[in-house]
Design goal:
This is MinD/ParA family protein. Pfam families: ParA (PF10609). Keywords: ATP-binding, Nucleotide-binding. This protein has 13 helices and eight strands. The protein is of the alpha/beta class. It has a single domain, classed as P-loop containing nucleotide triphosphate hydrolases (Rossmann fold), CATH 3.40.50.300. An eight-stranded mixed beta sheet has the order 3-4-2-5-1-6-7-8, sandwiched between helices.
């Protein structure tokens, strides 16, 4: 599987270079377990990227627990479900949140995605491929844990941010999902975010626990993007249904996420390791779903 996936990535990258297409960078954001603040991180990270001048779209791919729209207090009129039923185009299902942030609600759509026929999968890919070049980043907020759907999103995107916390169970589960994906494809690139840390020292110690074990047992380097401070402002923002980057921009959580975003942009992965546009992601995704 690894060799075939690498051949496909090389082919897609070569075709994109020949066509001179502008690529949209695909990043999956996942966690080993629920309750670590993954979706909240995704939402506020997207806003932090937009504050730096980038256009971002969130694709809520959390099967059964899609809640990006809830975190913003927005009722989505259309979701992926309507696209898969061919009732709406991909442009129709793009919703707009605060500060013009674009997002696609998942709803029950991803349950249907797993059961699509080959023809329907090709239609889905054709529609979503139109987003290439529309934004700079598409962030896929995946489900937590080791579901087969989450694994396929990670394998297709090739670039994954794993969100964990200092809790021992969160650390163990984060390592488990990294180990599982790495066993399936060595070319997936992981980076780590430690959420809800009390201070820099706790964040560093948590990241080191995962990175040291990954290096020892898989010879895998996992860079850490940064840490987000544990802050009561985050839960207050959730209750208000307003992202904490907007509700409490001077909070320690917002400031630490701003620093994290700066580090993320300053330490970009080499171009050859990034996903080769929306088309590349979709080709891999459709191929994995057809298996």
């Amino acid at each position: 599987m690894t060799d075939q996936a690498q051949e496909l990535r090389n082919l897609i990258k070569h075709q994109g270079a020949l066509q001179g297409e502008k690529s949209t960078r695909i990043i999956t954001i996942t966690s080993g377990k629920g309750g670590v603040g993954k979706s909240n991180f995704t939402l506020n990270f997207a806003l932090a990227l937009q504050n730096k001048g980038f256009k971002v779209l969130i694709f809520d791919a959390d099967i059964g627990l899609a809640n990006i729209d809830v975190l913003m207090g927005i009722t989505s009129k259309y979701s992926l479900y309507h696209l898969l039923k061919r009732e709406r185009t991909v442009w129709d299902i793009i919703n707009t949140g605060p500060q013009g942030l674009q997002f696609i609600a998942g709803g029950s759509g991803f349950n249907d995605l797993i059961r699509l026929s080959e023809e329907q999968l090709d239609y889905f890919a054709d529609q979503v491929n139109q987003l290439n070049g529309h934004v700079d980043f598409i962030l896929f907020d995946t489900g937590a844990g080791l579901s087969k759907e989450t694994l396929k999103f990670i394998l297709a995107a090739q670039e994954t941010i794993v969100v964990t916390t200092p809790e021992p169970t969160s650390i163990t589960d984060a390592y488990a999902i990294i180990k599982m994906v790495h066993s399936m494809d060595h070319n997936v690139n992981f980076r780590l975010v430690v959420n809800r840390v009390l201070d820099w020292k706790e964040g560093r110690q948590t990241a080191d626990k995962i990175s040291m074990v990954a290096k020892q047992f898989m010879n895998l380097d996992i860079p850490t993007i940064g840490y987000v401070w544990d802050d009561a402002a985050v839960s207050r923002a959730v209750r208000k249904q307003v992202p904490f980057m907007l509700a409490f921009p001077e909070s320690s959580a917002a400031k630490s996420l701003g620093h994290l975003t700066n580090d993320f942009l300053a330490n970009q992965m080499p171009a050859e390791t990034q996903s080769a546009s929306v088309k590349g992601f979709l080709n891999r995704m459709v191929r994995l779903l057809k298996q």
